[in-house]
Write a structure and sequence with these properties.
alpha+beta, single chain, globular, 8-stranded parallel β-sheet
């Protein structure tokens, strides 16, 4: 995509006092108290990105790297008391990082040069709490230096995350954070004997305290000694405060704009946080958002987490309109730092590709964290996942299926600044019947802002137009996903717009989806829902199901009589009631049959109740063991009180018992030995069997015990005799009986 040299109003707000005044494009526009809805709407369609913001949107898919003492301590947040000697890095392969990110399709990498613990991983002049005091390369190592060279070699842009919070400077008796120093005039950078700067630029700032001087000095190093920096990342995390410390962002911004003129600043006026760390995206993500104060003069920026940030109803409540793209940030691992390859789960290629399409295809930027391991490399598990996701991105989106001449040339020229009016339906000719399931659209946001509020896409089939997809806003980029459709013509209809709508780009594509693995879940009333299986990734989970998102149009066939499902088996269209039966199901998509999912369902639990329990409390009631929700679990101290008795509601034949362990906390409460007793009245018990389950800690999957001989009873009691690994708790997510 080309970014032309054009004049864009950048950071200065323009002020309009009359409804009849000519409105010019600007990055920020003030709303007057007397402005009507029509006037606010008119102003909104003149709020445009700066050149730097446009470049950030063009990059679209970028990487984050968290690497430091936490990598070795296995913490998420450090304490500030870390000993640099514990940073026991021996090898470092930033070329492997860069090559993997390049193959994944990423365009920029952000390195966490200092996290909240205050440990720096570059050769700073202004502290000895960092890599210079570690054994790595005898204190001469510089991870930012290595990465910057690897980025140049592999054609990646570079950014830095310098945490404003600094626990070392808080906890150290001589620390600068919150030390109540005088705010005076200071020159940046402060010269250090024997370590001159090649860049002779200096700054003089008024009202600067010790910590802000320290921070500015380090920013100067980062922005002058490692090549071009294209993003500077700040967050609002404050693990601990001291002395009423404040940040002089006005000075930070002036220094950044001077030394890194192409850089966007995350967490401030340039780029905003999406509002979560789980890869969740809004169905409608407006980049024209509202502020109560002028964002170009703000010192502090609150997180924007509301579902609606940019509707006209919302903007009517604000005082300023501002263009500010969202960055959808999440980690490939369960946590920001690497811990291990055994217990710390990673996202699948499905997860990554799905978030990519929802984030970059939902008017935001996708930022994926990939934390290196203690060998200084990306784990092979993570490399495989991002490489496969990158292959899918390239295979799907490299070449549009719209032929030359199939649409207005301005929609096909890869130029965000050339556009067509879209107040009437736009027809795209594919030349011959083509199978597609993706449509990419872009508005010319740099010239005409965001205007489209709703849009529909039709395909010509069976002699008529049939609607195949809809969306709300488009913005910089919108990817519409829909089941396979074979057609020779498409029609785009803008159904709601803030002003005369424009479209700058259009592309039609086909993602080669595969029939997904299925899973089934039964509710208390016995109804079973069958759907593509969700990833077991357990950190900051969002509501999206990547398997379902990527297999639109798949049909599900199932059986309950024990036979294998085929293409002629019962079609699943709605939840089905299943009791004491084996449900087998598979998905069919594009002529491919997915793997068979098999689940044995016992008695329906709706009439069950807890007759008694050795230990029961409000936080983990025994009812959680029979509530048909594996996400909840009954827990009890290991020992004589770890037992529950279940009333089945009526006498029943009991042949099997299935135990589902909890999986929220790794290795905790795994019941590896137990005893089953039954009763007709809940008072007199007779032993029905005992069980032992192996390897639960490493494989916490449901386990079934088959009684030597079926028994008939109304009450079932389970006594937990021990927990795996000698744990002091017992946990039961679910008990099922067949």
């Amino acid at each position: 995509m080309k970014i032309k040299s054009l004049i864009l109003a950048a950071s200065a707000a323009i002020y309009i006092s009359s409804a009849n005044a000519q409105i010019s494009n600007a990055n920020t526009i003030r709303i007057e108290p007397t402005d009507t809805r029509e006037q606010v709407t008119e102003k909104a369609v003149h709020v445009v990105p700066t050149l730097n913001q446009l470049a950030a949107l063009e990059r679209g898919y970028i990487a984050f790297i968290h690497f430091g003492p936490n990598t070795f301590s296995r913490r998420e947040w450090g304490t500030g008391f870390e000993d640099p000697a514990d940073f026991k890095l021996e090898n470092l392969d930033t070329d492997q990082w860069a090559q993997a990110m390049k193959e994944a399709g990423m365009k920029l990498v952000l390195l966490t040069v200092k996290h909240h613990d205050g440990f720096v991983i570059w050769q700073s002049r202004y502290t000895d709490h960092g890599i210079m005091s570690s054994p790595f390369r005898d204190g001469k190592g510089d991870i930012l230096r290595d990465l910057s060279e690897s980025c140049r070699k592999h054609g990646l842009k570079l950014g830095v995350y310098l945490s404003p919070a600094d626990l070392y400077q808080i906890e150290n008796p001589d620390g600068l954070y919150g030390n109540l120093s005088q705010k005076t005039t200071r020159t940046i950078p402060r010269q250090v004997e024997g370590h001159p700067f090649a860049n002779t630029t200096t700054f003089t700032f008024d009202g600067i305290d010790d910590y802000n001087e320290y921070f500015l000095n380090q920013l100067f190093e980062l922005l002058t000694e490692y090549g071009e920096i294209d993003e500077v990342w700040f967050d609002g995390a404050h693990p601990k405060r001291k002395g009423g410390q404040t940040y002089n962002y006005k000075a930070w911004k002036e220094l950044i704009h001077k030394l890194a003129p192409n850089a966007v600043i995350f967490g401030r006026e340039d780029i905003r946080w999406c509002g979560n760390e789980g890869g969740a995206t809004r169905p409608t993500e407006w980049n024209v958002v509202g502020y109560q104060a002028d964002p170009d003069t703000l010192q502090n920026f609150a997180d924007m987490t509301d579902a609606d940030l940019g509707s006209i109803d919302r903007l009517m409540k604000e005082r300023y309109l501002h263009y500010q793209p969202a960055e959808t940030n999440t980690s490939i691992r369960e946590g920001w730092f690497y811990r291990d390859d055994e217990r710390q789960r990673s996202r699948t290629a499905d997860d990554i590709f799905d978030i990519y399409e929802r984030a970059t295809g939902g008017n935001s930027i996708f930022l994926l964290n990939i934390p290196p391991n203690r060998e200084g490399r990306f784990s092979q598990t993570d490399v495989d996942a991002i490489t496969e996701a990158g292959r899918r991105i390239a295979d799907t989106y490299t070449t549009s299926l719209i032929p030359a001449g199939g649409a207005d040339s301005r929609l096909l020229d890869s130029d965000i600044h050339t556009a067509v009016e879209a107040d009437k339906p736009l027809t795209i000719a594919l030349g011959a019947p083509v199978t597609i399931n993706r449509l990419m659209l872009q508005e010319p946001v740099a010239d005409h802002s965001e205007r489209i509020e709703a849009l529909a896409v039709d395909a010509w089939a069976d002699g008529e137009w049939k609607e195949i997809a809809t969306c709300t806003n488009v913005g910089f980029k919108r990817i519409l996903r829909f089941p396979d459709v074979t057609t020779d013509s498409l029609r785009i209809r803008v159904t709601a717009s803030r002003a005369l709508p424009y479209l700058a780009e259009a592309g039609a594509y086909r993602y080669k989806a595969h029939a997904p693995q299925l899973s089934s879940v039964r509710a208390l009333d016995g109804t079973v829902t069958i759907a593509p299986a969700r990833s077991d990734f357990g950190w900051n989970r969002n509501s999206q199901n990547a398997g379902a998102n990527l297999s639109a149009g798949a049909e599900i066939r199932y059986t309950t009589d024990g036979t294998e499902p085929t293409a002629s088996s019962t079609l699943y269209t709605a939840p089905v009631r299943v009791e004491r039966a084996t449900l087998k199901a598979h998905a069919l998509l594009g002529g491919e049959a997915g793997p068979v999912s098999e689940t044995v369902y016992g008695y329906i639990k709706q009439p069950w109740s807890i007759a008694a329990a050795g230990t029961d409390n409000e936080k983990t009631p025994a009812r959680a063991a029979i509530d048909a929700d594996p996400a909840t679990a009954w827990t009890a101290p290991a020992g004589p009180q770890a037992w529950i008795a279940i009333d089945l509601g009526a006498p029943a034949e009991i042949a099997e018992l299935t135990y589902t362990p909890q999986t929220r906390v790794h290795g905790k409460g795994m019941m590896d030995r137990g005893r089953i007793s039954v009763s007709d009245d809940g008072r007199k018990w007779r032993e029905a069997g005992s069980f032992e389950f192996d390897n639960l800690i490493n494989d916490p999957t449901p386990r079934t015990y088959i009684l030597d001989k079926p028994v008939r009873a109304r009450y079932v009691r389970i006594d937990a005799l021990s927990a795996a690994g000698g744990d002091d708790t017992i946990a039961i997510a679910e008990i099922d009986i067949n």
